[in-house]
Prior knowledge:
Largest sheet: 9 strands, antiparallel
Number of helices: 10
Mean pLDDT: 93
Amino acid sequence: MLLLLLACGPTTPDSAAPDTGSGLPPIDEVTSARLQAALEQVHAELGVPGITAAYHQEGHQVWTGSVGIVDWDTQAAIAPQQPLKAGSITKTVTAAATLQLVEAGDLGLDDGVGEYVPSLAQHEGLQVRHLLNHSSGLEEYPALIEASELSEPWTEEALLALIAEQELRFPPGSQHVYTNANYLVLGLVLEAVTGEDWQTTTGALLQEHAGAQARIPDPAGGWGEIGAGYMLGVPGEPIAVDGEIDFKDYLHNSVLGAAGNMSSDAEGLALWSSALWGSDAVLSEDTLALQVSESMELGGDTAYGLGVVVSQDAYGPLRWHNGAVNGYVAWAGHRPERGESVAVLGNCWKQTMAGWDYTWSTQVADALWEAAYAD
């Protein structure tokens, strides 16, 4: 089975607006009902096992909701606070930690990557900014790993060796090609500058701004307590590998590094989105502007900046990122002009005639935005 990294039975819907201790009011009951109804409708349309979601409006508590199941065998309902893999939303945290170092003057966007990661010094012109906006030319590495070894622990040194052995696909800065290698290497840059492992640096950011459920799992300890993930074949039944339908351990978290080793509940992702893109709590206004301006066009009104996807729709500007690890999908975004964030987590990929659908979390996010802005 190809590794891609970005990114049903009876259901019992559940909804909650947890008291975070902030003393802030919950969102109004009408909006809350619309959000839950939208979640249930899109769940039925998609035919996926389970979805959790969160909506955060500035000055209010976070609304959270869920629908569907967390376990295929027991048909147990999924709770709003269920942690799942967040995939490439990890990149937003790695990028934020990197940009904090840039703000402090400890790192420069123009700095050569080889200065911090000597095994990549042969790539002249490769700069930190090229890692952040996926214009480095580095070859993707998960496809270089034998399928039988994906579930085994990997060291950063071994993964870096796979990357360093490859030629650049194109001159740095000349085009945008999304690869997890960029952010695996950024984690090593963080370690070289701070003197501590990248998990400590990024984990501290999450604990401060996203809460206890958002975490960077210890690479030596596996994924920890998260829900199951499934690969749904046609017509909607889980595919088994070696007799196992739960893909939680199919891909060891150490393989993902600073590109995708993160788990969270939906509330944590919404709080992180608001803190990162909706305030100066994580990055200054100038750095947030830089994060957007240093972007590579993806087509239409969408571009990839320094660890953020930038787009525009009928509701205004949107800052977001999605994620996908075999059996799991995620989406988190913020509307800076409205002061609102949405986050989505799901526990499956779907097989279609066109291939594996691991971006359906965007469809859920769109439905929630529409519900939030309904007249």
